């Protein structure tokens, strides 16, 4: 589980974990606290990886426990 997966730092741990053979659940609400166009490009690039699952805008207001239902932690 990587939070902020589409932001400035998040794609880097996602790439590393994927390269090591892990399945990654990336989470990012895609807010405008960081360039939204860049976030969307990062998210699209990561979504192309078979072992990557992305959860985005629908997370706003979602309880953390519900998000963790999709993660093997």
Automatic annotation (TrEMBL):
Domain NAD-dependent epimerase/dehydratase: 1-40
Cited InterPro entries: Epimerase_deHydtase, NAD(P)-bd_dom_sf
Superkingdom as given in the UniProt entry: Bacteria
Entry protein name: NAD-dependent epimerase/dehydratase family protein
């Amino acid at each position: 589980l990587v939070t902020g997966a589409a932001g400035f730092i998040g794609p880097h741990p996602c790439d590393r974990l994927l390269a090591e053979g892990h399945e990654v659940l990336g989470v990012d609400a895609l807010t405008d606290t960081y360039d939204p166009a860049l976030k969307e490009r990062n998210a699209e690039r990561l979504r192309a990886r078979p072992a990557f699952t992305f959860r985005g805008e629908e997370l706003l207001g979602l309880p953390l426990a519900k998000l963790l239902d999709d993660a093997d932690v």
